[in-house]
Design brief:
Layout: H1 2-14, E1 27-34, E2 37-44, E3 55-56, E4 69-76, E5 82-98, E6 103-105, E7 108-110, E8 115-135, E9 139-162, E10 165-192, E11 195-208, E12 211-227, E13 230-247, E14 250-268
Antiparallel strand pairs: 1-4, 1-14, 2-3, 2-14, 4-5, 5-8, 6-7, 7-9, 8-9, 9-10, 10-11, 11-12, 12-13, 13-14
Length: 269
């Protein structure tokens, strides 16, 4: 709430006469600073089917739970019915620490008190095509289909053992791109000439080829138009998904959760 109060105050001070409202913009570009709390868990199974450890990167490996991420979104409204939306954000983290429990990663067993260096990178691309099935001058409601693609890259390395032979440096690296289709709803409302409120909900729960997944993306935002082409605002977003991978280069599971506020500037034309 404090982020919205600050944003609204700045908007009021900087406001100039507004022209077109946001719903009438044909193209918009949003640049945001996202402040999420992150929870990431990974399991890497051995090629013989033996389950690996469920590793909590924040608690087991000491990764920061709170980060600031840049995020970028572009939207195109070619006519009164269709909305095309694309978004990108990424998170890369690395750390080194002594672990306080045994970790099994693929073929490698990392013993208690081993010093482990690890990294977890993710690049997230979201693309949706929406249809506005109900709209008035100041309100719209629509449905969307899309693709939520995430490129995961994980490594864990340090002194470990393979097949009972210990005392050597071992490295386990995995990467996978998980393209998950989604369906969802979106809405936008302009209760006053300078004010816009928006929300969206995207969901998935299904199996596709080498993946089975559950994805939930929800967000709500409020913005104030400070210039005929510029909005500033605040948003709250939650992204929660679980991906089960069954591929030659990675058998296991990824659980990923982002939730927190964001501040953004949006340019509309």
């Amino acid at each position: 709430m404090k982020y919205f109060v600050v944003t609204f105050a700045l908007a009021t001070l900087a406001a100039t006469p507004a022209a077109a409202q946001r719903l009438s913009d044909t193209f918009s570009l949003q640049v945001a600073a996202y402040f999420p709390s992150v929870d990431s868990r990974v399991r890497v199974d051995a090629p013989n089917g033996t389950s690996g450890s469920s590793i909590d990167f924040e608690n087991d490996l000491g990764f920061d739970k709170n980060r600031t991420l840049p995020a970028f979104m572009a939207e195109w409204r070619p006519n009164d019915d269709w909305v095309f939306n694309a978004e990108y954000y990424s998170l890369g983290r690395q750390n080194e620490r002594a672990i306080d429990r045994e970790l099994i990663v693929g073929d490698t067993v990392f013993p208690v008190n081993a010093t482990i260096r690890s990294g977890f990178d993710s690049k997230i691309i979201r693309f949706t095509i929406g249809n506005r099935f109900y709209q008035t001058k100041n309100f719209e409601l629509g449905a969307a289909v899309g693709l939520h693609g995430t490129d995961f890259s994980v490594f864990i390395e340090g002194e470990g053992s393979v097949g009972g032979q210990g005392g050597q440096f071992q490295s386990e690296n995995r990467s996978v791109f998980a393209p998950l289709p989604t369906i969802g709803l979106f809405l936008a409302w302009e209760p006053a000439p300078r004010v816009s409120i928006a929300g969206r909900f995207d969901w998935l729960s299904l199996s596709i080829d080498d993946y089975s997944g559950r994805l939930l993306n929800t967000e709500v935002s409020a913005a104030y138009r400070v210039h005929k082409n510029i909005d500033i605002g605040a948003m709250y977003r939650r992204v929660d998904y679980r991906v089960r991978v069954n591929r030659d280069n990675w058998e296991g599971e990824v659980k990923y959760n982002f939730n927190g506020p964001a501040l953004f500037v949006q340019f509309g034309f």
